[in-house]
User: Fold this.
Amino acid sequence: MVSFDTVNLSFPNRKDLQPNKPWAHQDQDPKKAGFRCLQGLVNLLPNGPDDGGLIVCKGAHLLSEEFHKEFINEPKVWAWTKEWYGFSEAGLKWLADKGCKWEKVCMEPGDLVVWDSRTPHYNLSPSESSTQPRFAVYTCYMPVADLSQDELQLKKKAFEELDFTTHWPNLGGFGGVPFKRLNGEPCPHNYKEPKSGRPVLTERGYKLTGIPYIKE
Assistant:
């Protein structure tokens, strides 16, 4: 099943935002080892080496269990959910010493990019030479068999209320986050329901929500 995730629309050469500082993280609870979730995004505009966007620490997911055993007592970077782990400078040095290298992922419109949720990653800001906006829709996947009936009911409720989840498809509605302009005012372009009406899904799309697997 798939997450009801967010959209990333970013513009180059903005003067009202500071460039991203590296914020390497993995979107998985270190205490829950092994492969659990396939993170991903659908890319909608050309995204080259200077255009900002996804950068990953290639192959580091294979060292995840070893890493977290060694860093189990290290002070944690603050996180709002257990399904998120921020890497410290010491952690990044450990990965570098193991031979892991960071790689900017370049994409064409229509590309689907997926990665193991244990993979360290973050978003780069576009370089000053870039004129290309970034447009991507996050789509993350996990086996429907891993979800409880209660979690499936939460997904049904989120779908009916046009609410969204996190990157984790098994989480219920995560609504309530205010969408504001830089001056603190509510964004007038934030519509919970599309102006074209509620989404109409194909049979395959409906299965990906997880709702058909609810046992009434």
Notes: The CA atoms of residues 50 and 127 lie 5 Å apart. The chain is about 15% helix and 15% strand.
